[in-house]
Every structure is written in structure tokens, then in C-alpha cells.
Specification:
- By secondary structure, the chain is of the alpha/beta class.
- The protein is built from eight helices and five strands, in the order ααββααβαβαβαα.
- The chain has helices spanning 2-5, 8-24, 48-51, 58-66, 85-93, 111-116, 127-139, 141-147, and strands spanning 31-36, 39-45, 75-79, 98-101, 120-123.
- The chain has a five-stranded mixed sheet.
- α5 (85-93) links the parallel β3 (75-79) and β4 (98-101).
- α7 (127-139) crosses α8.
- The relative contact order is 0.17.
Amino acid sequence: MALLLDRADEFMAAALDEARAGLAEGGIPIGAVLVRDGKIIGRGRNRRVQKGDATAHAEIECLRNAGRSGNYKGTILYTTLMPCYLCSGAIVQFGIEYVVTGEATNFKGAEHFLRDHWVQVETLDDAECIALLGEFIRTHEELWNEDIGLR
């Protein structure tokens, strides 16, 4: 797992940039980047509010923006929050083997599902990721509950 963390700060910073951009657009501050061979090949942010699309989660948008790859072996998904079951299903479906998350404090997500499907998961417990989403949840509880299906 050490190999995954060599440049984690750089890639998590890019995911946080996506999360901040989403917040600035009036959306939910979750961001993701997909990395292959040390290069970002896809970026995404939660755009459910902006697009009026229930499936526009950060990880899904990241995969859409990465385009067709044919094969996602050897890629690493960096995301500011532990993926939900929707996003985790896509991760498993496309064979992404590694996920590095900023946090799983505000939302536990589907970590066990990922691990049960042979995806290696590393959680950084990043203070900025925790604070950014935590503040959003405190000030936009109804929107957050809608995002995670509790509305």
C-alpha cells in the first residue's frame, strides 16, 4: 500500500480542488480523480444539484470524464469521501483495484463492499476533507440526506 501513498497528497489535493469547485457551483463538496501511471486521466465532482442528475456523484463523473479506457487495471481512484454503494459498484464493475479516500468520518460508505470485492482501500483521515464535508452537512442537512438517499 505504500506505493499508493507516495503521491497521495498531490492527488488528494486535486480531488479537493474538484470538491471545492463543486461547492462554489452550489453543489455537494465531494471530488475525485482517477490516476494511471502517475498521471490524472479523469476528474469529477459531485454534480447532482448542478445537473439535476441523481447519478452525478463525484466518482461517476470522474469515470465519465476519463472516457473509455478499455481496461482500468492499474488505476487508482482518489476521492475525498468513502464511496457509496453506487460508486463502489462502478469501481468493482470496471476493475479499479485501488481506492484512496480522504475520509470516512462523515459517511462510512461501502468500504466493506469494496474490500469484499478485492479492492484495496486506504483512508487518509484528511482533516481538510473531513472539515469541508462536515461543515456542508451541518449547513445543508436536507440536501446531504437527499444525496445519500435518506430523504
